[in-house]
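REVIEWER CHECKLIST
Item 1: Sequence provided? yes
Item 2: Single chain? yes
Item 3: Sequence as submitted:
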Amino acid sequence: MVKLNRIYTKTGDDGTTGLATGARVLKSDLRVAAYGDVDEANSSIGVAIVAAGAGPDPRGLGAILKSVQHDLFDAGADLATPVLGAEAAGSKLRIVAGQTARLEGLIDRFNEPLAALTSFVLPGGSALAAALHVARTVVRRAERTAVELQRREPAGVNGEVVRYLNRLSDLLFVLARVANDGGRGDVLWVPGSNRAQ
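Item 4: Structure as written out by the authors:
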């Protein structure tokens, strides 16, 4: 269990921070950016949870999002712990395939009753859908940062964390449509709608 007695330590005043391994790196390090983006994604999902709790939630979207928040803390811990050589299974907190598969099951379950799209969906509609779209785009950024980290340090990054983030953004898109009255409240893009005639 994590125990935090002090909020500030002053150890980062020199522009460095500690990874889970104890190594110190610059706060601008790509690995720190990756788990920082995941933390921001988690915060944006927190906003969506508040929006889900503001009204009836018959589909249990709030509970799903709360479970995702736990996964994102796992993802942050994963990214903060470079893979160092052969690692005994379960010796480090890593995102595992079962977590990604759980998201795929949720995507399939919630997407199946939705009508097929005839255009791209603009972020908006209900307050919950808008919050989910913001979370989706932050997760996409986290994914891009993790992909770049993996490109630079292929042996040092758990590939499952990248797959998880990819599926999570897909899930958030589907849940945004669900929050828009099962897609009936989606705001669709009309290409060129504001161009001068």
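Item 5: Key structural point noted by reviewer: The chain has five helices and four strands.
Item 6: Recommendation: ____
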